[in-house]
Amino acid sequence: MHSLIARGDGCPDVYDAVQLSGEPFVPEITNLFPNGKPRAPLPLPEYQQVISRMKDYRQRYLDYWTSTAERTGDRPVEAVISPVTPYAGVLPGKFYPSTYSSSVNVLDYASVVIPVTFANKDIDVVSPNFKALSDEDGLNMNEYDPEIYHGAPAAVQLVGRRLDEERLLSLAQLVVEALTDYRAEFGE
Fold this sequence. Notes:
This protein is α+β, with helices and mostly antiparallel strands and 188 residues long. The chain has a domain at 78-187. Helices cover 46% and strands 12% of the residues. The chain is built from eight helices and three strands, in the order ααααβαβααβα. It has helices at residues 2-7, 12-21, 44-67, 69-72, 99-107, 135-142, 146-149, 165-186, and strands spanning 79-83, 110-118, 153-160. The chain has a three-stranded antiparallel β-sheet, with helices on both faces. The chain is globular. The model has no long low-confidence stretch (mean pLDDT 88).
């Protein structure tokens, strides 16, 4: 669903921008342009179905988010900390689908990316007990190489509800201050 919402128009604006740049398509978007041209837009009735599913998805997620007040005993959760992508940096041709950011876009939620650290080949190794949660998870882990990713920036995103940007920025500042305090105390 995510790709149909974001790309239901055939991506003519992306195509035009790439053409203006004179650069080739990066491998991650070549599938959007079969035969080097934009896809035809989805027919309106089909696109209306996609939008209807999107609205339902948004409502169900909003209901879930609101229901967190039952667990906190007071108010719904104000934000969620999550990865931005499954990797620290992206290698050309190695960006595999990830819902960490696309789901935030479909929900039309606010997100702030916060730099945290850098990949370290001596620390960031694959556990021998790793078990993939999905085919996508396995693919991403199989492509991971501590040597190649060493030194790449790693970040998290703080996700907040729709139209809640000001609160999210305030919360992001608290996270940044906590990271700063941690680094000062532990020298990392």
